């Protein structure tokens, strides 16, 4: 599943990833109803962006350690699954309401609140970038120091809820700094599945993005177009949603352009299929367009 292929099988072009032969029986069982796919957990991921004086628009990427059960060795954006406590309704909030986020992502209000909180919490846990501030119009200017690290660890081990963290610090969640970007669901053939909403956000002034997660072994600021080229050259492994997102972002020159772009959020879910006796992960059109024939 690490390489892309576009082949003409049975007279039709297949845009997708050829899967190992060992997965064929598993796909057959799921498609025939003899096995049930794993449930997809709600998750959020954030594309943190900055304008670099020399290189232009850049995105922050993490490379997952090869011991991870899901997407080992893949370059990804910060993010993770929802904590049930992310739905706490009494935290200070600035920006579009959960109902407005729900309309954008076609989710109920509670789920939308959880997704926005998860987006901000997971980004802080993995990079120390915090989209929150002491007022509705400000952001924390620096998250370095032992006290911030203690809070990050408390969020990681779930001894502290995200709402409790913000309340104790007297911080307001800045939902207005996020924009909805995409919605992807892990294909049914995967043992771990996520129903993931993608957000974009500008890197807050004064803060620094760092690799502080034990789930990653490398961090990089990179031009979206450069990241796409490295993925297509086989230098960097990326899952289709990451590559599709970076390919879209490559069309923009600045963070402001990205944040101002109108978006219609459509659900994309690659499908596992048996085509001419071979196992394939067929990509939705949204991703397939970034895998040209012969790539």
UniProtKB/TrEMBL annotation:
Claim: DNA-binding is one of the keywords in the record: no
Domain of life: Bacteria
PROSITE patterns: NUDIX
Keyword Magnesium attached: yes
Domain (Nudix hydrolase): residue spans on this chain: 40-244
Cofactor: Mn(2+); Mg(2+)
Entry keywords, A to Z: Hydrolase, Magnesium, Manganese, Metal-binding
Descriptive protein name: Nudix hydrolase domain-containing protein
Organism: Actinomadura napierensis
Lineage of the species this protein comes from: Bacteria, Bacillati, Actinomycetota, Actinomycetes, Streptosporangiales
């Amino acid at each position: 599943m690490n390489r892309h292929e576009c082949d003409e099988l049975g007279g039709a072009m297949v845009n997708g990833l050829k899967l190992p032969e060992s997965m064929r029986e598993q796909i057959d069982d799921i498609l025939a109803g003899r096995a049930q796919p794993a449930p997809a957990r709600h998750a959020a991921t954030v594309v943190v962006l900055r304008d670099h004086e020399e290189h232009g628009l850049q995105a922050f990427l993490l490379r997952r350690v090869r011991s991870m059960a899901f997407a080992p060795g893949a370059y990804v954006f910060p993010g993770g699954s929802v904590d049930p406590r992310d739905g706490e309704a009494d935290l200070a909030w600035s920006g579009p309401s959960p109902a407005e986020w729900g309309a954008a992502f076609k989710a109920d209000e509670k789920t939308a609140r959880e997704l926005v909180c998860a987006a901000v919490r997971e980004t802080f846990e993995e990079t120390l970038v915090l989209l929150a501030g002491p007022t509705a119009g400000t952001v924390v200017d620096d998250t370095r120091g032992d006290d911030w690290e203690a809070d990050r660890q408390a969020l990681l081990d779930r001894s502290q809820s995200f709402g409790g963290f913000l309340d104790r610090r007297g911080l307001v969640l800045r939902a207005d700094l996020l924009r909805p970007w995409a919605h992807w669901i892990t294909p049914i053939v995967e043992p771990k599945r996520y129903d993931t909403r993608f957000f974009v956000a500008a890197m807050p002034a004064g803060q620094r993005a760092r690799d502080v997660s034990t789930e990653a072994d490398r961090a990089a600021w990179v031009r979206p177009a450069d990241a796409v080229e490295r993925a297509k050259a086989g230098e960097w492994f990326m899952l289709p949603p990451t590559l599709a997102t970076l390919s879209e972002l490559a069309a923009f020159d600045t963070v402001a352009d990205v944040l101002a772009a109108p978006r219609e959020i459509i659900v994309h879910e690659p499908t596992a299929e048996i085509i001419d006796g071979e196992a394939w992960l067929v990509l939705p059109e949204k991703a397939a367009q970034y895998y040209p024939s012969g790539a």
